[in-house]
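Interim report, section 4.2 (structural modelling).
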Amino acid sequence: MEQRLTRRNFMAAWLGALPGFGLLGYLIPVWWRFLFPTMEPFGFLSGQVLGTEKEQFVENTSEMQKPWDMRPFEFVRQARLFTSDGIYNTRVPGFLVAIPKDTSNPKEGDVEYRAFSRICVHLGCVFNYVIGRDEVKVGYNYAVPLNEVHFACPCHLSVYDLSQLIPIPGVSISTEDEPWMKGPLVVSGPAPRPARPFKVRVDDRGDIYIVQLEGGGLS
Amino acid sequence: MATNAALAKGAPNILQQVQQYLTERLAVMDLFDETFTDRAKTNPWYCVGGMFYFTWVIVLVTGFWLLMWYTPTIEQGYASIEHIQHELPFGWLFRAVHKYAGDAMIILATMRSYRFVFTGDYKKPYEIVYFISIFAIIVCMYSGLTGYLLIWNQRAFWATKVMVTFPTYIDATPGLGFQYFGRNTAFWWLGGGSIGQGTMTNFLTAHYALSIIAFLLIEQYFWKTKLRRMNMTWQQMLVTLAIVVGVVYMRPSEMGTFANPTVTPNPILSDWYFLALYQLMKYQHPVTATWVTVVIPAVAILCAFMDVRPERSLWDRPGMAVVSIGAFIQWIALSVLIILNIADIQRDPPFWYVSFMIPAVLAGWLEWLHFKKTKVPKGLWALPVFANQVLKRPSPTAKPEPKTAPAE
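Predicted structure of the assembly:
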């Protein structure tokens, strides 16, 4: 079994291979568009997703004056999917929370409104709003709770402390330009970053609207 | 030039070496222990492959039956399975047999891989056969996962969410973020940005395709080799079937509750074969956990290439014995811990890292002791000789080389 690599058969191999590569060049983009219809062309290089968001009313501020008042809501994003309609309304569950400006001394009326996606940044389960140190200790294995109010995920026991808001790490937007880009610190469990924040807008009449979700996550 | 000189001598080039390597190994190809017929007569461990094929046939037959009655939409999927379970004659039996025969396939594939390790059968030239046996476990697990979503209950929904989200951490690995491989994988599985109808259609297709494509390829192989597919007597088949049906009567399959995307139940468990991985996910940073998940089967396959000495008895390979048995015990222990809902994230991970390390160190030490006793001259000279032995990779059939006097 002796086959020498000569100039002649080297050229012959390439003559056969080039049309083959050309054909693949035609087929791969077609196949790719077929597999990933939710992406822009070349979207796989940026991870960009097609989808639209609409502003959505949740609650009036007069109903949420007490510190740690919470309203659950579902934020609707229209995403493209493999369905025959091509469109699917993704419902992102979220919590709108009245966070006291001074967490050590919470006072009625002295609150700011922040909203967070309930989808755990770890592996996508939906976390709960847990009030009380014993609940988070017993149910979610967070050994020494410092504060009263947490988000806690049942799947892999990630616990987020709502009294400690920090800027999202690894995001180039500064919190001075976008003050809503802050999330609760992970104090226990495997979640790698703070929970995903929503942009919140309060209008003149005191109506609270959810505007947009921090991009990038799966829902 | 050196290469030209080598070619002139007729030494095989790299392509020819690869070809030779593959030819040697494909000549002893074995998928369901169909070439171990003689050993199966005396050793029941060699019936495992036949049992694997038999349970697969059961799964296929019941699967076709279930597919006739199943409606693959997220609105009606659960109701159609309720219809199968409660209203169709013997529907509950077919569904439970389909589930438990599928579980049996995972158990049997695992047993077969362990048999390769324990008997030393995975040594040259059986590396590719062993590789396929590990790959079969992974395909079975994926098949189980994709099938499980179809019922659209709470456990299935959240297990799928976790399973589909975890590849995104490949992109979070330092240096690998530029290509969005994990994210695209997640989008492909999900059929969009979230779990929905697209996911269910994808999963039904995958569940069907994983079996059918494999079945067609394997039929091609058997048609070519003219070997007997099931290396079993009819009594053995009956016993296998009886075990599956017995389990069905002891534990009828459950329905769970209809999936609710806004509520994650607490506690939540995955299917039994993912429990240990699930527990590991709690302990580790998600990037680490993702790579550990990828690395476990790779290490299992690498065992065949690391265990190079010709001995076949487990007593002569103490390192591999400790590693393989230890891995099994730890897998069971982690599964038990998650069922009991014991996970203290502050306390447990160091304990588990140490308990993973102890068997590894013990294995290395035992291997060293055994090697010192049998093969190698004393002193530091053992190390280069050991390295040489590893590099030379003597085949299991070859006679041991005459000992050379140690250089003093």
